[in-house]
Specification:
single chain; Rossmann fold; 6-stranded mixed β-sheet; two-stranded antiparallel ribbon; 8 strands; globular
């Protein structure tokens, strides 16, 4: 079993649900992926960190940091950063808040992201691309550049195209159709 097929199986077993669901995008769906059930599990973290790091390295993006909109991107970003710790080029992780803090420094981005960094925006599940686009805007406002978006799952509902239309490349580790196929086995 390849690393990707093992991830598909894990997502199908832990995160995929059938029923009637309202998604964060506002869309209705008969299929829901609660990626956090995988990304916050020991097995998921151990699998996703090295696989996502390897995917980033193969992409040629050469990034300094990884992060995205809280909460979905957080465990994935931290797993990637941890997996990179012993490498020649460790990656820092950051979080994009949904709203700036109302106290202290009032930050929208948390963590060791720096002006001039080249980053990969991380997304757990892409549906419309809205969360990734918000994170991209926040990163650019912090005077860092976005090399691309790395998604755990692409729901294949137009989000990838919306992000690419904004001029940002997208790589997804798995697709919803792969998870659905694993559910029907």
């Amino acid at each position: 079993m390849t690393e990707y097929s093992a991830l598909i199986t894990l997502l199908a077993e832990c995160s995929a649900k059938r029923g009637r669901f309202k998604l964060a995008s506002g869309k209705e769906s008969d299929f829901y992926i609660d990626a956090r059930l995988t990304t916050m599990s020991p097995e998921g973290l151990a699998m996703i960190g090295p696989l996502a790091l390897s995917t980033l390295r193969k992409s040629g993006w050469k990034v300094d940091a990884v992060g995205g909109l809280t909460l979905g991107a957080d465990p994935i970003s931290y797993a990637i950063s941890y997996a990179s710790a012993a490498s020649e080029y460790p990656l820092r992780a950051f979080t994009v808040r949904k709203e700036p803090k109302t106290h202290g420094t009032g930050k929208l981005l948390e963590g060791p992201i720096r002006e001039g960094d080249r980053v990969a925006v991380i997304e757990d599940v892409i549906t419309t691309g809205g969360s990734a686009l918000r994170a991209i805007e926040a990163v650019r406002n912090a005077k860092a550049s976005v090399a691309g978006v790395l998604a755990l799952v692409d729901r294949e509902e137009g989000g990838r195209q919306a992000i690419e239309k904004a001029g940002v490349s997208v790589i997804s580790l798995v697709t919803a159709s792969q998870i659905i196929a694993a559910l029907t086995r």
